[in-house]
Amino acid sequence: MGKLVDTSIQSNAPGSTSHGYAWVPPGLNRMKVHHIFSLYLFKVEEYMAQLPNHVVPRINSTGEKYREKQLMLQLPRQDLSVAYCKHLSNNVERKFFEEFINARNEIALDIGFVCPYISKQMECRKCSGVLEKNEMAVMAPKLGENCGWHPACFICTTCEQLLIDLTYCVRDSLIYCERHYAELYKPRCNACDEVYFSYISMAIMFLIYCIYLIIMAFLPNV
């Protein structure tokens, strides 16, 4: 995947619309391109109807405010660009940061899309319910064409919030928001909200983990 755009999504960005919503999902625009505009609008409404009402991004609604808040939470700018990091104190830490985001962008980060009509029956990866043939489903390209979700089931494994704008990271076949994906690998500072990339912080975390393993090894079996 290429460089992720800033979290301040503009109205002319891919996936945005002026038809009553601050955002609509990728995957439906081909209907618009092929002049099936009424079907496009119908499918947009079908997708939105499957979401909890308080997260539907209608313009000037609580759903739009929810989206704006989740963009900042799930896609923290300091995780996306060194320009927003204030505590990378030397070139080594900056290199660690750049290597981390390059690897993440290559192997984990992607944007899902809505398939308006799936070609075969499949199981929802979240609720294990049935997605019938020709039903709408959210697809995650990193996990292949056989993996689908109900629109309301496309959520982060950790925080269980709807993955905002269908942006996700994948690890061990599970999907996460970018924030919680990063925290699978690096600790995050509670004060500045940046992840640690220093030798010292990583060494301390490794030492704590080793001590924990030693203690667990000598505890009697319960």
From TrEMBL:
Domain PET: 2-123
Keywords, ordered alphabetically: LIM domain, Membrane, Metal-binding, Repeat, Transmembrane, Transmembrane helix, Zinc
Transmembrane segments: 196-219
Keyword ATP-binding part of the UniProt annotation: no
SUPFAM superfamilies: Glucocorticoid receptor-like (DNA-binding domain)
Matching Pfam families: LIM, PET
UniProt-listed InterPro entries: PET_domain (IPR010442), Pk/Esn/Tes (IPR047120), Znf_LIM (IPR001781)
Boundaries of every LIM zinc-binding domain copy: 122-187
GO molecular function, one term: zinc ion binding
SMART domains per the UniProt record, alphabetical: LIM
Record protein name field: Protein espinas
Lineage of source species: Eukaryota, Metazoa, Ecdysozoa, Nematoda, Chromadorea
